[in-house]
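Checklist before submission:
- one chain only
- standard amino acids only
- sequence pasted in full

Submission:
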Amino acid sequence: MSAGLRELKKRQTRQAISDTATRLFLERGFEQVTVAEIAAAAQVAKMTVTNYFPRKEDLALDYHETFTASLAAAVTERRAGESALAALRRELLAAVERRDAVAGFSGPDFARLITGSPTLSARLRELHDLREDALARALAAGAAPGDPVPRAVAAVLAGAHRVLFQQVMELTMAGTADHEIAAAVTEAARRVFDLLEPSLGGYAVRAA
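Returned file contents:
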C-alpha cells in the first residue's frame, strides 16, 4: 500500500470512529457511552480508538485541533497592512458565512449534547482557553520578552470570540434557523469589533 493510500485509510478510519461515537453520544448521552462500546460499534479495537482519540471528549469535539489553532492562524496569516483585530473580524465573519463548527454551528441536537454534558462543557471551556493561549503566543512574536500586552490583547479578542460562539450555541438550542443565527451573530460581531476598534485597530498591524 502506498503512503498516500495509507494516509487515506487512516483518515477514513478516524472519521468512521468519530461518526460512530457521535451517533452513540446523541442516542444515549456522552457519559453513558464507553470507549469499548464505540470500538465495538465501529468494528475496531479499543486501542485503535484511543490511538486516534486519546481523550474521550475529543471523539465528540473532534475539530479541537483546528479550533484551538484558528485565532492564532488568522493572526499569523494576516494580510499586509492588516491588524490582528481586522484579521480576526474577517475570519470570524467568513466562518459564520460558512456555518462553520469553529464559530459554533453544530445543529440543535449536538449543541444540547455539549451543554448537557459536564465533561464536554468543561472540555469546551478548556479548548477556548487553549485557543486564547495560542493567540497570545502569535501576538507575542516580535514583542519584548515579558511584555504583558500580547496576553492582554489575546484575552480581549479571544473573549469576544467566546461570547459570539456562545451566542451561536444558544440560538441553535432555541431552534433558530442557521441563516437567522448567521444574521444575528454577524450584527453582534460588527458591534463588538467596532467597540474594540478604537483601542486595538492599530495593534499588531502587519508590515507591508
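Reviewer check: The chain has two domains: 3-56, 64-200.
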